[in-house]
Design goal:
heterodimer; A: alpha+beta; 14-stranded mixed sheet; 11 helices; 14 strands; 26% strand; B: alpha/beta; Rossmann fold; 3 domains; 6-stranded antiparallel beta barrel; 22 strands; 26% helix
């Protein structure tokens, strides 16, 4: 817990800024807000649906039980969210990312933030001049890899042992699949229960695989919204690797308000290890969504706090001021639209 | 407890509390920021609660308990910069850097901030504040109340003490009087108009409230009575049965027609114009001086009343003498004025020439360390007091101006409107006005005490430099320049006051300790 209440800077943060200054690279005056989309990085990468985790039906959540668990002294909740600014310049693209971890202590939310700053370019002339400037043919993809690596490193290092870790975003597969597996193992070794949340997904993991639902709904979210009442969740589904059924995630949909539901995901190892606590955790999640209470931003309260810290630390870090005297020429779009 | 500087907004320094600060710092408190080159002292002007996580009320609506973390509160402060304790020689003013940490100021820092002069004496009071309709003492980080020394010079720039009954007005006057005689070796003349307010100052105070006793301890004082204390009362009024009064310290007084200052007779007059009132002293002076010239040693006030009444038959024409003792023109009084004066003179006969009573003069009053109280309760007492007060004031001013005495004197006048008309002009206020304007050089001070400041004679309020308002009527407090809100003034507990103090401009709310003499606290 001594590590909390701090703002950390990635080791290459200052060096990268110094180098873009030295190389006379100028960042545009205003960055754009960047959402990391991992729709195409599903976990497991080559999965298929298995439905037999629970009986297919609606499960009523009990916020009173969640309230009780939230206030037990042994319950440590923590949450992760991130905020990203993207700077598109002629010479390349920079990403300023704020990784935010919030731990609920007895009387306060204790934040810990990590700021990273990377610059990607297709120009070998530039990358040859500095080891802190990254060569990339696809800055979007490479920034995602760096993002996931930093996120996993950050969470495995700083999440308190014995905690329930709420992570905004899905279990990620794709190119970073192995990182994710390593992270899950580390979490479990520290008795951390990672829980992943997905909002606004258009995936059809359930509706494409349950014959009765096939073709009737636009997405799983559409089905879950129609199927559930407020304060209910669906049964858990298992989504497993075609070749290795032990490599899987367990998920359900939860509807807290009369709004689009959320998907709650567990890695199968987490689910199996903590099966006896999963119902309690679902009640806790429902209580924490009610505690957040914001219909415009329905998510578990600690994630909402982590989001605030992520955005605030990003806002406080004026990368342009730091790199004030560099000379990058903005692209036409940035000039035209005044980013 | 620590607050962090956020920056400056609209001329005020904005600060926010750090985690672990368990409550709001009240308005009026002082904060110290230690910079690299010196300290800055700030006074808290506004202090509000802020909930950083702005939790939704939904959870409580659903009968669920809120997250304790969501209940976190912070204290946002807006403070004025009152003193920079550093030295610069380039004429610029230091920045207060954002992220600087502030703590509650200690006694030494606050004393400097409010302008106390090191080494100088003065009656000690506690600094106070009113926050959320609660009046309370300001305390430092060691939980010790913050004290302030009222400057001694304040006494000679006139003081007004106002407050409703029981608000602490009289106790404060007693406290200041006791300081004046004991620490400044001055003399106090107090006019007591009701109850036994000032008549028991020979006795030590008795306190039941542990907070009062704690305050005395903090000031290093024990309750004790005034050693040199005399109660004077008109011979025609019996106060021997007044509870608590020590009969041995009481002396009957009368007024001697041979010595009475002619101007003092204006104290008798009610309901006539200032100009008409000015005729009576000149008529009386002519008669008094004529009797003296005749060598008549046995003339009495009754003789003057007869002399005055006989003029009715001669068309109410009087010979007069001015204050330079030159005979002036004859005057003719209007019949209405004549009847009014005659009625009052007949009424006043009782006050004069009682052979069993003493006639007071300045020497009885201007005695170092002595409190003299003239007890003039009731209607008759007020008339007596009006004449005697004018007589004594004139005598004291004369004695001081002729350097016959260098003893500082404080005159305490309770309910001043009973002795001087609220509409009195400066001329009619006579010596009182002179004192108010020249008191500093002659070491004469006046403390006016009143339930309603609107009773103050108009000519006086402009020369009063220290105004202390206990719980009282709000509009009149504001009209006297008190910078406090309606809620703040109405929330003042007993002993707490809003004030503007001469030469102590940063002080806004104070709490008087209970006087060491003459106050008997009731069991609470």
């Amino acid at each position: 817990m001594d590590n909390l209440n701090k703002l950390l800077f990635h080791p290459s943060f200052n060096d990268t800024i110094s180098e873009i200054n030295r190389l006379n690279i100028q960042l545009p005056p205003k960055p754009s807000y960047q959402e990391m989309n991992f729709q195409l990085y599903t976990y497991p990468p080559d999965g298929r649906l298995v439905t037999n985790v629970e009986e297919i039906k609606r499960y009523v959540l009990d916020p009173k039980k969640g309230d009780k668990i939230a206030h037990e002294p042994t319950t440590i909740c923590c949450a992760y969210d991130e905020s990203i600014n993207k700077f598109s310049g002629l010479e390349g693209t920079a990403f300023l990312m704020s990784h935010s971890l919030v731990v609920t202590r007895e009387l306060d939310f204790m934040p810990l933030n990590l700021l990273t700053f990377y610059f990607y370019t297709r120009s070998k002339d530039i990358t040859n001049k500095s080891r802190f400037i990254k060569y990339s043919k696809d800055p979007e993809m490479d920034s995602k890899k760096d993002y996931v690596n930093d996120k996993i490193e950050f969470l495995t290092e700083y999440s308190p042992p014995g905690s329930i870790l709420f992570i905004d975003g899905p279990l990620i597969g794709g190119d970073v699949y192995t990182f994710m597996i390593r992270a899950i193992n580390k979490f479990l070794s520290k008795e951390i229960i990672p829980v992943f949340f997905v909002k606004n997904s258009s995936s059809n993991l359930v509706t494409d695989n349950i014959p009765d639902l096939l073709g009737r709904y636009n997405s799983d979210m559409h089905w879950a919204y129609t199927y559930l009442k407020k304060g209910q969740r669906t049964n858990f589904f298992k989504y497993a690797d075609r070749n290795n059924p032990d490599n899987a995630k367990i998920f359900c949909y939860l509807k807290a308000f009369d709004l689009s539901p959320q998907r709650v995901e567990f890695h199968i190892d987490t689910f199996q290890k903590y099966r006896y606590k999963i119902d309690e955790i679902m009640d806790l999640i429902y209580y924490l969504i009610l505690a957040q209470g914001d219909l415009k931003n329905p998510q578990v309260r600690p994630i909402a706090i982590a989001e605030k810290y992520a955005r605030d630390t990003l806002r406080l870090t004026d990368i342009n001021k730091i790199a004030k005297y560099s000379g990058l020429v903005p692209t036409m779009n940035q000039e035209r639209f005044g980013w | 407890m620590t607050w962090v500087v956020v920056g400056e907004e609209h001329g005020k320094i904005k600060l926010v509390s750090k985690s672990g600060t368990p409550g709001l710092i009240p308005k009026g408190s002082y904060l110290t920021i230690e910079g690299e080159k010196g300290k800055f002292i700030l006074r808290v002007d506004d202090s509000v609660q802020y909930e950083p996580y702005s939790p939704s009320p939904l959870i409580v609506d659903m009968d669920l308990s809120p997250l304790r973390q969501d209940q976190k509160c912070q204290n946002i402060i807006y403070a004025s910069r009152v003193k920079d304790l550093n030295e610069r020689d380039d004429g610029l003013i230091d920045y207060i850097l954002p992220q600087s940490e502030a703590r509650r100021s200690n006694q030494e820092e606050i004393s400097k901030a409010i302008g106390e002069i090191e080494g100088e004496g003065g009656p000690e009071v506690f600094l106070a504040t009113v926050h959320s309709s609660q009046s309370q003492l300001l305390i430092d980080n060691e939980k010790k109340p913050i004290k302030a020394k009222l400057p001694e010079d304040m006494f000679f720039h006139q003081i007004l003490v106002c407050g409703k009954t029981g608000s602490g007005k009289t106790a404060a006057s007693k406290y200041l009087a006791q300081y004046f005689v004991e620490k400044m070796e001055g003399a106090v003349l107090a006019i007591n108009v009701k109850d036994v307010d000032f008549l028991i100052m020979d006795k030590k105070s008795i306190a039941k409230n542990p907070l009062v006793i704690k305050e005395w301890k903090l000031l290093g004082e024990e309750p004790h009575g005034i050693e040199n204390f005399t109660v004077y009362f008109p011979a025609n009024i019996d106060i021997s049965t007044a509870p608590g009064v020590t009969p041995e310290l009481c002396q009957k007084i009368t007024m001697n027609v041979k010595d009475i200052e002619p101007e003092a007779l204006t104290g008798l007059l009610r309901g006539i114009t200032d100009a008409a009132a000015q005729n009576l002293p000149n008529i009386f002076r002519y008669w008094q001086e004529t009797k003296k010239k005749e060598g008549n040693k046995d003339f009495t006030f009754g003789g003057f009343v007869k002399y005055f009444s006989m003029a009715e038959a001669d068309g109410r024409i009087f010979r007069t003498m001015n204050s330079r003792k030159e005979e002036s023109a004859e005057i003719s009084l209007h019949s209405g004025t004549f009847s009014n004066l005659q009625r009052n003179l007949i009424f006043a006969q009782d006050f004069f020439d009682n052979p069993e009573a003493k006639s007071l003069d300045w020497k009885d009053i201007l005695y170092p360390g002595k409190i003299s109280v003239i007890n003039v309760p009731g209607d008759k007492g007020e008339e007596f007091g009006s004449i005697l007060l004018r007589h004594l004031l004139r005598r004291i001013v004369q004695a001081k101006s002729q350097r016959e005495s260098n003893v500082p004197v404080l005159i305490i006048i309770d309910e001043v409107h009973k002795f001087y008309n609220t509409s009195s002009s400066k001329e009619a206020l006579g010596d009182l006005d002179t004192i108010s304007r020249t008191g500093r050089s002659q070491k004469i001070g006046v403390l006016f005490s009143s339930q309603n400041p609107q009773d103050m004679p108009g000519g006086l309020s402009s020369v009063i430099n220290t105004k202390i308002f206990f719980r009282t009527d709000v509009s009149s407090a504001k009209s006297h320049g008190i910078d406090a809100s309606t809620v703040e003034i109405e929330s003042l507990r007993n002993g707490f006051a809003a004030a503007t103090i001469h030469n102590l401009s940063q002080v806004k709310f104070i709490k008087f300790p209970l006087a060491y003499a003459g106050v008997f606290e009731k069991e609470t």
